[in-house]
Amino acid sequence: MIVIMKLLVLGGTWFVGRVVAEQAVARGWDVTIFNRGRSGHAPTGAAEIHGDRENVVDLKRLAASGPWDAVVDVPGSVPTVVRDSVRALQPVVERYVFVSTVSAYRAWPHEPVSEESMLHPGDPDWDPGFRHWDAVAYGPLKAGCEAAIRRDLPEEQSLILRPGVVLGPYEYVGRMRWWLGRVRQGGGVLAPGDPGRTIQPVDVRDVGRFLLDMTESRQSGVYNVAPPAGGATFADLLHHCIVATRADAEIVWVDEDWLIEHGVRQWTEMPLWRKGAGTWAMDTRRARAAGLRCRQLRDTVADTWSWLSQGGEPVAHERDAEHGITVHKERELLAGAVRDGAIVARTCP
Ligand SMILES: NC(=O)c1ccc[n+]([C@@H]2O[C@H](COP(=O)([O-])OP(=O)(O)OC[C@H]3O[C@@H](n4cnc5c(N)ncnc54)[C@H](OP(=O)(O)O)[C@@H]3O)[C@@H](O)[C@H]2O)c1
Known about the structure:
Strand content: 15-25%
CATH topology of the largest domain: Rossmann fold
Largest sheet: 7 strands, parallel
Number of helices: 11
Helix content: 25-40%
CATH class of the largest domain: Alpha Beta
Order of helices and strands: EHEEHEHEHEEHEEHEHEHEEHHHE
Number of domains: 2
CATH superfamily of the largest domain: NAD(P)-binding Rossmann-like Domain
Distance between the termini: 46 Å
Oligomer: single chain
CATH architecture of the largest domain: 3-Layer(aba) Sandwich
Strand order of the largest sheet: 3-2-1-4-5-6-10
Structural class: alpha/beta
Radius of gyration: 21 Å
Shape: globular
Bound molecules: NADP nicotinamide-adenine-dinucleotide phosphate
């Protein structure tokens, strides 16, 4: 049976929201996106309403265009802003779907987390007074957004997804793009620690499909969203980058404590590398039982490269600049690691 849902997507033009909106249009759904019209790309086939979700008048105008079967709030990151959207839209939407994050967990990235793990204390009435990216505030802010939803909506009217790291076409944070770009340059590529370290990034298209499936079947509750822990490795990631870019590169794995001693910033200078035992240990059994299916990492890497090499450009974002290491620093580190005997392994396809 074909189900045609009426869907409102708050945002919808950068990355996760854009993919959700595109996939919903592809399903034949009646899709409206709401944003300020300042940035990103509106998916073809979606109706667009422009306005600022922080402006009460704009929110009222948006609500007057309803009703919808569901609203998807991907970018909401300030509790008061999410609270006001929930209150304005509650009368005209059946269900509120919110994309939270693994960062909302208090123990992440230090310990493995499941949906039952404690979140950061989240104040639903918190406005930090700034809107720029802040790595420390991010998790507590998202936890506050979740708290705002839980306070104002009965559980059966909300669906909260907590993805781990999301990669794939349109990604603007710059993690995969940096690795692809660096590997493509070839030569000795500095890589962090153990090549066998398992990683658990999720493809944006798998997040979108799961979100829409769950929305269509009117599910509620909280779900971690990532592939099973213990699958792909960091070496797989870089191997797929070599294959996709057809680079002549050798991956030089350097002891991670040595890298830290030498001032390499985890997670940003070496994207996707972080020592914490819980970084890539999210329990995703609940989502898998509910139907989450994740494609192979090799497809995410290949499709991202193919998008970039066909001229794909992510939206400009402040986070992009913090990712990657300079050529000069990488060269010095590689020489120092040889000198200090800190090289763990060398791999090439
Ligand atoms: N990247 C990851 O690895 C990862 C992992 C886990 C969770 N997440 C979550 O995924 C989310 C990423 O979302 P996304 O950026 O890809 O979402 P998106 O919906 O594709 O893009 C953000 C949208 O918000 C709009 N917007 C910004 N401020 C607005 C305002 N005041 N009023 C109305 N619209 C506004 C932007 O358009 P205008 O500028 O034109 O208004 C844009 O359309 C984040 O919230 C993050 O918590 C990401």
